[in-house]
Design goal:
The complex is a heterodimer of chains A (333) and B (277). With 333 residues, chain A is an all-alpha fold. Chain A folds into two domains: 104 residues; 200 residues, MetI-like (MetI-like fold), CATH 1.10.3720.10. Chain A contains twelve helices and no strands. In chain A, helix 5 packs parallel to helix 8, helix 5 crosses helix 11 and helix 11 packs antiparallel against helix 12. The longest helix of chain A has 36 residues. Chain A is flat. Chain A starts with 13 loop residues before the first helix and ends in a 13-residue tail after the last helix. The relative contact order of chain B is 0.17. In chain B, 37% of the residues lie in helices and 24% in strands. Chain B is an alpha/beta fold and 277 residues long. Chain B contains nine helices and nine strands. Chain B is globular and about 50 Å long. Chain B has two domains: 173 residues, Rossmann fold; 67 residues. The chains are: A mainly alpha (333), B alpha/beta (277).
Chain lengths: 333, 277
């Protein structure tokens, strides 16, 4: 095999990393294509499974080798940092593919990735309409409204002691309410369209934000507050110049938790009444029609959207709380 | 009890004339009510500090020296007695922004640059933008930190951070400087250096300084007067005049006069402890 002829790991550069990765990719592509050939698909012989195990072992070895390489910072290291997770993920998908195709697993139980991808490509207009209905109209506005309301109430509760004492236990209670109980009520209140989904998302995201912000507002240190007092600072200065900046890590934590809650809330809420569009609607109806490839296509869209949403918040967080010990660079003068 | 007035009146410091009473503490007591019963933090404290003095408070941990400073700064309230700062109660003095307070830790805000940390009190007190920048520059230069304006506090060493906090306390030019063990967390070499710088700073600005410490050499080296305190309840057990020359260098600490003063402080601390052992 070509990989055996590669130079010793320590001397490897971009070429070494790329060579190893390409060899592993070739092995994966080989078994994936082979699985679809007539005579193998649905009734794969023993030698095919032996080949699959060998390809798997080879990619394992390739990833192991790349991970252990001592590379100088630069192009080679960057290539490796991309290649290793990519190869790992591809291996998982190819194994899923060849097992489903080779063993002839019924589509209803588990469609192979290729079928999901095919469905994804051919159903772009439907998926885009569902994405627009659920993510753009329900998740984002609900997340923004719920988080903003939670934040605002936390700031007010901070000034009004009885609200702080009274709201937090109530918050714990409401956040323990099951969404499947709230969703039908919201549909009764706000109708079948996206408004009721926004309502569900607001209810789900309000209290995590409230609790996080209240905790954050109490997070500034004694000395920092005494300092403000020694300047005879008013409560507005105290809030804007000390307590809110100190609360930022907590606030972003709330926003990140809420981004996943909002997606779950909006999708599940559509199970309880919706116009004939939406990701949750599609999942519930396509399951009924045993079109599991479509269900998986929606799941892929939801996963990508949720990851990007979370990632975007994390990026803003990093920029806004660069001073926090978990982000700031090592001390350098 | 020892009254500060008696000692200050007899003092000759080469400047002559009666000076304004900046701090006037009369029969001050402070009791904290805790679950385990009352804790007597301060008991019948009497002290007068005049303009331009550098007064150190020394005593073992828990003797109430920090609490005393916090009462004068209106960060704590006494349960009995009377405190006047420039003739007004502490809360009014605080609202009039008469003092700058340097805490045990630098307490810099990590999201602000060094410059903007120094500008924090100026923003709150409503100085113009130009004035803020000018004062930040001037006070950072005063603590030898010119050129560090754009750094963040966490990019500086502990000693530099504490110097930033001193620049911040000086930035709005208060009459009074309260310092609560400002160098307690620093190593001895850095502490010596900062002691010298602080002394120069005090001579430059002629501010009245109240300085809490638990280091005898630091107290003798810096002060014009040393207040020795004992714990449980926090009381003043001795007030020692420190008539060392105004021009002080670290070598001074080897002289017999310095050692004699240090010995007297040590004796006072020991006397305060004797009934405890």
């Amino acid at each position: 095999m070509t990989a055996a002829a590669l130079p010793a790991p320590k001397a490897a550069g971009v070429a070494g990393v790329a060579g190893t990765a390409l060899a592993a990719l070739a092995a994966l592509a080989g078994v994936a294509l082979l699985a679809h050939r007539p005579g193998i698909a649905g009734s794969a012989p023993l030698w095919f499974w032996a080949l699959v195990v060998a390809a798997w072992a080879f990619t394992w070895w390739a990833n192991q080798r790349m991970s252990l390489l001592a590379l100088p910072a630069g192009a080679a290291e960057r290539t490796r940092d991309v290649a290793v997770p990519l190869l790992f993920g591809l291996t998982c998908f190819v194994l899923w593919e060849v097992v489903c195709v080779g063993a002839g697993v019924p589509l209803v139980l588990m469609p192979p990735p290729s079928a999901i991808l095919e469905r994804l490509v051919t159903s772009v207009p439907t998926l885009a309409a569902d994405f627009n209905q659920t993510f753009v109209r329900a998740v984002i506005p609900g997340w923004a409204l719920g988080s903003a309301a939670g934040f605002a109430v936390a700031v007010v509760a901070d000034r009004v002691p009885f609200l702080r004492r009274g709201l937090l236990p109530l918050g714990n209670f409401v956040s323990a309410l099951p969404i499947i109980g709230i969703a039908p009520i919201m549909v009764m209140w706000f109708g079948f369209d996206w408004h009721s989904k926004v309502g569900v998302v607001v209810v789900m995201t309000f209290f995590p934000m409230l609790v996080n912000t209240v905790a954050g507002l109490g997070a500034s240190g004694h000395l920092e507050r005494d300092l403000m007092r020694s300047y005879a600072a008013g409560s507005w200065d105290m809030l804007v110049k000390l307590r809110l900046p100190a609360a930022l890590p907590f606030i972003f934590n709330g926003l990140k938790i809420n981004s996943t809650l909002a997606l779950i809330g909006a999708i599940v809420a559509e199970f309880f009444g919706t116009p004939i569009v939406g990701m949750g609607f599609r999942i519930s109806t396509e399951v009924g029609r045993l079109a599991l490839d479509m269900v998986w296509a929606e799941i892929v869209v939801a996963a990508i959207a949720g990851t990007l949403f979370y990632g975007a918040i994390a990026l803003v967080e990093r920029a806004a709380t660069f001073w926090h010990p978990s982000y700031r660079p090592a001390r350098g003068r | 009890m020892l009254d500060g007035v008696a000692t200050t009146d007899q003092r000759t410091d080469g400047q002559g004339g009666a000076r304004a009473r900046v701090i006037d503490i009369n029969g001050l007591s402070l009791t904290f009510e805790t679950r385990d019963g009352p804790v007597f933090a301060l008991s019948d404290v009497n002290l007068v500090v005049e303009q331009g003095e550098f007064v150190s408070f020394i005593g073992p941990s828990g003797c109430g020296k920090t609490t005393l400073l916090r009462v004068v700064a209106d960060l704590e309230t006494g349960t009995a007695g009377r405190v006047l700062v420039n003739g007004v109660p502490p809360d009014q003095a605080r609202r009039e922004r008469q003092y700058g307070y340097v805490f045990q830790a630098p307490a810099l805000y990590p999201w602000r640059t060094v410059e903007r940390n120094v500008m924090l009190p100026l923003e709150i007190m409503g100085f113009s933008g130009e004035e803020r920048r000018e004062r930040a520059r001037r006070n950072l230069a005063l603590v030898n930190l010119a050129g560090f304006e754009r750094k963040y506090p966490w990019q500086l060493s502990g000693g530099m951070q504490q110097r930033v906090s001193i620049a911040r306390a000086l930035s709005f030019d208060p009459h009074l400087l309260f310092m609560d063990e400002p160098f307690g967390a620093l190593d001895e070499i850095v502490r010596d250096k900062l002691n010298e710088q602080l002394l120069q700073l005090w001579r430059h600005t002629r501010k009245t300084v109240l300085f809490v410490t638990h280091s005898i050499p630091e107290a003798v080296f810096l002060s014009t007067r040393i207040v020795v305190m004992s714990p449980r309840p926090g009381r003043i057990i001795d007030v020692i005049d420190c008539n060392l020359p105004a021009e002080r260098t670290l070598e001074l600490r080897e002289t017999p006069e310095f050692l004699a003063l240090a010995q007297r402080v040590r004796d006072g601390l020991r006397a305060g402890h004797s009934y405890d052992d």
